[in-house]
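Input for the complex:
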Amino acid sequence: MNPERSLGEFEQIVLLAVLRLGDAAYGVTILDEIAARTGRNPAPGALYTTLHRMEDKGLVTFRDGSPTPERGGRAKRFVVVTREGRTALASAQSAYRSLLQGLDLLDAQLFGDAYA
Amino acid sequence: MPESISSARTSSPAIAEWLLARFTDPTHAAAIMGDLLELSSTRSRLWFWAAYARTLTTLGWRTGGSAFILAFVCVRFMYGTVIQWLMNHRVPTLMQAGLFGVYNPHVRIVTWNISMVMAQFLCFATPFVVVRFGLRNRLTQLTCALFVISMPVYTLRPWVMDLSGVLTILLIVAALVATPLRKPLAVLAGTCLPAIAVKATYLFLLPSYRYRHIPRMPASWVVVSDATSFAVAAIVCLYLYRRLLQRPPVTDRNLA
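Predicted:
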């Protein structure tokens, strides 16, 4: 795989959160989704840097929303995953899946050590 | 949100947003400020400004200006400390040792000269591209590889200089042959040449004195000439990177 297209862990988390949120993915909802699903509370700056980097790589793009009063009249910028973003994510996830095969790590974590 | 806090937050972000827009484009800056305001509606005013400061820092870190300043500091450190340590004070000046072969006249000039010229420039280019583009970038990886190979030339040991020169030439040829490295090499070469030209202009055209037939600049001019040539290098590097290596904007047909 092209090293410039390979995804870091946080990039994968952000892409997955964006895909889960669908049309409602923007800064605030992405941070909330990551916090809810992973227990992490990433700094907003880290999220924006990652989104900009992924935009440069062609993995995501942005779509402007309409301004809202609680945002001081500023518009939301919704994040959209591109076809290349989906391909890169699928490739990274299949690599994880391949490495996990036969290890039963997820089952051991869910059902305790007795299962393993 | 209480009225006082709300008004305080929405009045000061005008300047804050302007400052943020220096590090990203204005549309992104407005959206980021909007996100921070929305997030801060359930948090304190201190949280808003702390989050803003952290965002500003993380976005500002990879800009061309920050990369230039950090790279320039690195250059002064490299010239003043690392290269001196490598040379182990075997010769009084770099020019005598390197470009004119006073100390090692028997060393094959073609091989080690290319390393020495590359190493001088790469002292700036390496930290610049590391900060600006990150370690996972091909331009950064190529620059780092050349830097690591060419720096040992300053040990001034003949066999190290020869080895370094040969390896540098081999790496350049390999980058020319390998398609993924060709454009990064073009960016690096296009960055290097104007910087060397500026430095040479200072050296040969502006007031200088000669020491053993070698043109030398007064110490105060050295910093100025370095700053100018590296500024040119940084500008050319960013321009060439945008033209040759940056991906075109995503169009609707690329969307999933």
